[in-house]
Amino acid sequence: MGDLTTRIDPATPPPPPATLPVRHPVDSTLRLLGWLGVLIRHDALIPREVTPLLPMWVRWIAHLLHLFTGREAREGRPGQRLGKAFEHLGPVAIKLGQVLATRADIFGVEFARDLGRLKDALPAFPVEQARKEVERSLGRPVEALFIDFGPAVAAASLAQAHPAYLADGRKVAVKVLRPGVERRVTQGLDAMRLAARLAVKFVPLARRLEPAAFVETIARALQLELDMRLEAAAASELKEIMARADDLGGHMGAPAVIWDGVGKRVLTLEWAPGLPLTDPAAADQPGLDRNALADNVVRAFLSQALDHGTFHADLHEGNLFCHAPAELTAIDFGIVGRLGPAERRYLAEILWGFISRDYDRISRVHFEAGYVPPEHSVEAFAQALRAVGEPVIGKQASQVSMGRLLGQLFEITDLFDMHLRPELILLQKTMVSVEGVARRLNPDHDLWAAAQPVVERWIRRELGPQAQIRDAVAEVRSTLKALAKLAQNPPATERVVMIERRAPAWLVASVVVGLAASVAALVLSLWPSIV
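Given the sequence above, the corresponding structure tokens read:
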């Protein structure tokens, strides 16, 4: 299985995303006030359910805000109301809600689950306007590429999808950005940057979440989603990754990109086979193996992340199509996560540590990766991990209290001063989404059993004897290359000039006389004892 006892060289974590300034403070302040108004109307700012738990002076503020709530405040739980408010506020707030939904360790399981169901859905804009956007982006009439271009079948805050047919009869999906969406996203991000600065300054508990880095990670993901050419490149890259044969068989596929139908604001892909997992009839298709499908969701994600360091980072039910026996096709490649070699190794070893119940190894990996500050005890952190892992390892999902598990994890992160790592936000977001998809397919799905073959294969390949030999050979080759380069370009010879300096005769005579006087004085002082 490979040697897991050798120490990993501590990795320097990637620098946090560069924090951009608030470009329009006045407009952003007014926009934030508008957002606060929407949150107050939905009773999502200081929900009435948590008011009794607050200090007395905060309760008075909460009661005052509750006077301004609307009809929306009487419907649903706090997470559901916040999701409805985010849907009303647009693409930036929706993206924020999707990321916050992964932090069940902080906001609670029920709240995160409710927030995770927020729908990125809006009324479609007219098909005539979509045709104009396609013609403007591609520089030619719609009829030059498509023989049929139908009304939108799905519409979200950033874009909407239209069914169409190519001249060769293939059915395709044409994704078109909403008119003016770039301006809305820019304005929303500016307001979020202002909110992050205010949170850091006035809310000490929020600092552990690294609000500024959190916002910049969301901003980066949104900016990439606003250029369909980049999404086409991501779709092409992930299709190649998914298509590579491995010893466990394929887990997921991706539709081909129709490059003639790609522009800055337009993306054309082949139509995905099967039904979306959001369709109630999808899981009941004849011959569909729900458990194998759940396994494939988990294994596809882990294979992408571990084997290739590039993964689809938005794997929710709306972006997954399925058909018998257990085939999956992913769509919507606007968000792609990437992991460096060090992060991939840490992920694999942490997962393998839980699978093999080696909590000491998990603890050391956390410290070596810099996830836990060095002033804490490795042994104490391993003990805390054991308290979390032992009650759930090997049990079915229906037997695991996720509330208790995540509550303990939050206590651990707080106890050991663990901060949010911006480079791992997309990884954590996708892991939570994947687990949720798998467990909705099969409530008793064993995530660890599904992950074991992929992680075990990675450990064997990357840390086994062959890998050690490969690494040694690579090190020897790099050393030989360095020596050859040194031989071809030897360092320039430096001339060293040595100048001999003689002491003046008077200085030598003075030293000799002083030394003789000192010896004479010493002899005279010792003379009585000598005789």
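The beta strands are 146-149, 154-155, 159-166, 171-177, 266-270, 275-276, 310-312, 320-323, 327-330, 336-338. Try to locate this feature in the token string yourself.
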